[in-house]
Design a protein that fits this description.
The complex is a heterodimer. Chain A has twelve helices and ten strands. The termini of chain A are far apart. Chain A is an alpha+beta fold. The model of chain A has no long low-confidence stretch (mean pLDDT 95). The longest helix of chain B is centred in the C-terminal third of the chain and has 32 residues. The chains are: A alpha+beta, B alpha+beta.
């Protein structure tokens, strides 16, 4: 099964010892795992067969991302596959898909997706980055996996409208600067586009399209968070069963049992919401925004709680470099901020529910 | 014909039958208790005659011998109406039948199944006692063997709707000399037996949904024992697992009153300086979190149902449904009062606050009945996460040597 396959790969290529080595070496990723994933067709799971992919749905993407989240795997899967390749698939013409997607499917090239700008939150407009003709200009930061990416899908303003463009990063008019981040296993950078050459994805544009695209990203990211939350929960459970304190197992104390039961509950609801969002988005329809927002908020809070309380259950040792708690403690925070905070999604959710309750006002 | 086409045919047939037979229940109606009970039974009888009662159960047990898919289709279609039902129906159809099926004889299942699925009798549950709630196995009601009969003495509480029940499912102690879980036996008791006295308990809501049931020298034929002597605890577990599964869709979201969508609407309609209550960040944050939980329950419930339908039964995670839904009910109804500030604590012609008061009060019982929050958390930790059971002072100690 797909899930087992990804789990086995992560166990082999990115066990916790490897994660620690990568951080120490300041390495931005684990290219060997990426290469194997490409060979096995995991990177091309949702890329159309005509473009060198496997042509499955993005439910498969979700499963892969969930398992990578569980392992805190240092590969640019969310950036290159969940965001960039999906953006090309959904906004690119057939010709553009055929040009850009095959190399992403094999893993030969890595792409990322740049939406954030220094002074805006998700979906806030206007964008400072603008496109004129085949040139893009403006600052994008933070951009995930910026240092390992060959291509970047840039969200920019063209004549007052959202539009997406592919930029080859290896050109003089692109300046990349690494950012010192909180989670060094997913490095970010600032990219300054100085009238860089770009190719606009012409099949879809506009703010409604961007919003729908972010709903999909949020849903896929929720799976990564749910995977991480599950790992943190079971790490805490396992430790609580090993560790004895005052003559009994740590996990026999009700304070610990109830804490973990509450995390389990949040995790089960978050998983159900993520699965529902994946189904809703696959079908399309008016409830996509609410479903995606519920998935995003639920998964963010489940992962953050699981990561924090996992460290807490470990006690002092949880605070050390040698314990594996910090991978999730950092990653949970990073993912909470990676695609609009809970506060931003709260507004998106409540506005969607309010609009649905009062359609006439929404149209106005 | 494909499964799908067959399902569609069945759905249309059900729809037509309901249109003809359930027309008087198209809109919600309130009935006095006794009338509700009578109408509930009459409705089951009508479904039974048409082959729609206990659809997936065998004909010999009063069912229709259909499939669980058909049962699910009928349930969904019937849910479009407000057909009469009360607690005693669910206790019979789901919990009592699960116990008899799982632990009783085929003959018992056919006999009581037929009576129940035909609408002849409804049931109540005689489990909890004044000193045995979460610690149910500490119950003291005694059943003593007397020839082919048992003689029962004791006191039960929280028996929902017992004053309208024809029969009850009863757990009693048959052997006080063994450890407490081991000395229990499960019985079916005719509520019209001499010595059964049902007294209403006035609740926090002012209503009396629950009762105390006093059992004084009540005679139960041994034929109405379910399972072996000493198997009572296992029977109870079957019943309680079924009960928890049934609460799964208690709050399914949508746009009903009390749903988060309706709270959003009400907040938007509540004026605050220069705008509405929905402009408040604090309000939005609460609504969003409740929506995540409400939809999470709904989506989780769908998965549980699929699992249960494919024959897996309910997994132990089902305990989280009531854990989340009861608190959600409490918090959202407190919020509905908050929206109106000081006035929220008082009745009003403009708002249906009596219903809000009632739900808020009722939620306090929901957090206790059928497994208190704390018990459910223990269950999730122990049965799902495999964490150790509680340290117990009563383990392996014969019941009659336990301190009170």
């Amino acid at each position: 099964m797909l899930r087992d396959q990804v789990q086995a790969l992560c166990k082999e290529h990115v066990p916790p010892e490897t994660l620690r080595e990568l951080i120490t070496a300041n390495a931005p990723w684990q290219p060997e795992l990426w290469r194997v994933m490409g060979e096995l067709g995991l990177l091309g799971a949702a890329i159309p067969e005509a473009c060198g992919g496997v042509g499955l749905t993005y439910r498969e993407l979700a499963i892969i991302n969930q398992e990578l989240g569980r392992a805190v795997a240092p590969v640019p899967f969310f950036s290159s596959i969940c965001m960039a390749a999906e953006a090309i698939r959904l906004a690119g013409t057939a010709e553009q898909q055929a040009r850009w997607l095959p190399d992403l499917a094999t893993g030969k090239r890595v792409a990322t997706f740049a939406w954030a700008e220094p002074s805006t939150t998700l979906l806030e407009r206007p964008l400072a980055t603008t496109i004129e003709g085949d040139r893009v200009r403006g600052p994008k930061t933070p951009v995930p996996d910026a240092s390992v990416a060959d291509l970047c899908i840039v969200l920019a303003d063209r004549g007052g409208e959202d539009c997406l463009a592919v930029v080859e990063l290896d050109q003089d008019a692109v300046q990349r600067k690494p950012l010192h981040g909180f989670d060094e296993l997913r490095q970010h950078g600032a990219i300054d586009f100085r009238r860089a050459r770009c190719e606009v994805l012409e099949a879809a544009s506009g703010s409604a399209f961007t919003a729908a695209l972010f709903d999909e990203f949020a849903t896929l990211l929720a799976f990564e968070q749910v995977g991480g939350a599950e790992a943190a929960l079971f790490m805490a459970r396992d430790y609580s069963l090993d560790r004895y304190i005052f003559g009994r197992r740590l996990g026999s104390y009700q304070a610990v049992k109830h804490k973990l039961a509450d995390i389990l509950t949040a995790l089960e609801l978050a998983t159900a919401n993520a699965l529902h969002a994946a189904d809703t988005l696959a079908k399309g329809g008016p409830d996509s925004r609410a479903a995606a927002a519920a998935a995003r908020i639920g998964a963010t809070e489940a992962y953050e709680t699981a990561a924090r309380e996992n460290l807490q259950v470990h006690g002092g040792i949880g605070f050390t470099w040698e314990a594996n708690c910090h991978f999730h403690y950092r990653r949970a925070r990073l993912l909470a901020l990676s695609l609009g905070s809970v506060e931003v999604w709260t507004d998106l959710l409540i506005d969607a529910l309010a609009d649905a309750a009062n359609p006439s006002q929404a149209a106005a | 014909m494909s499964d799908h086409a067959q399902d569609e045919d069945y759905r249309l047939e059900v729809r037509a039958w309901l249109a003809e037979n359930a027309a008087e229940y198209a809109e919600p109606r309130e009935f006095p208790e006794a009338e509700l009970v009578a109408r509930s039974k009459a409705w089951i009888r009508r479904k039974h005659e048409a082959g729609y009662s206990a659809i997936a159960e065998p004909v010999a047990a009063g069912g229709a011998g259909g499939t669980s898919r058909q049962a699910a289709i009928f349930e969904r279609e019937e849910a479009r109406y407000h057909t009469p039902t009360f607690t005693g129906v669910g206790i019979g159809f789901a919990m009592t039948m699960a116990a008899i099926k799982g632990h009783g004889t085929a003959q018992q299942y056919e006999h009581f199944g037929t009576l129940t699925h035909r609408g002849d009798i409804t049931w109540c549950q005689l489990f909890s006692e004044p000193a045995a709630g979460s610690d149910l196995a500490g119950l003291r009601t005694r059943a003593v063997k007397d020839g082919d009969n048992w003689v029962v003495n004791g006191q039960k509480v929280w028996s929902s709707w017992a004053h309208h029940a024809d029969w009850g499912i009863l757990i009693a102690r048959t052997d006080p000399t063994v450890a407490k879980h081991k000395g229990l036996t499960f019985f079916l008791v005719d509520m019209k037996s001499p010595g059964v006295e049902v007294r209403p308990i006035r609740q926090i809501t002012g209503k009396s949904d629950f009762n105390e049931t006093f059992l004084t020298d009540v005679v139960i034929p041994d034929a109405n024992r379910i399972g072996a002597e000493g198997e009572g605890w296992a029977c109870c577990m079957t019943v309680l697992a079924t009960e928890r599964g049934r609460t799964r869709s208690a709050r399914a979201g949508g746009d009903r009153s009390g749903s988060v969508r309706s709270l959003v609407r009400q907040a938007a309609a509540t004026p605050r300086q220069g705008g509405s209550a929905l402009d408040s960040r604090a309000v939005r944050a609460k609504l969003a979190r409740w929506y995540v939980r409400e939809q999470g329950l709904k989506n989780f419930g769908k998965r549980l149902d699929e699992q249960a339908r494919s024959g897996g039964g309910f997994p132990a995670t089902v305990a989280l449904v009531k854990l989340v839904s009861a608190t959600l009910l409490q918090e959202t109804h407190a919020f509905l009062m908050d929206l109106d500030e000081y006035a929220g604590a008082f009745s009003s012609d403009a708002a249906d606050r009596e219903e809000v008061f009632y739900q808020y009060l009722w939620s306090s019982a929901m957090r206790i009945a059928g497994g208190a929050d704390e018990v459910l958390r223990n269950q999730l930790a122990e049965r799902v996460l495999g964490m150790p059971g509680e340290m117990r002072a009563d383990k392996g100690v014969p019941f009659n040597e336990l301190p009170y």
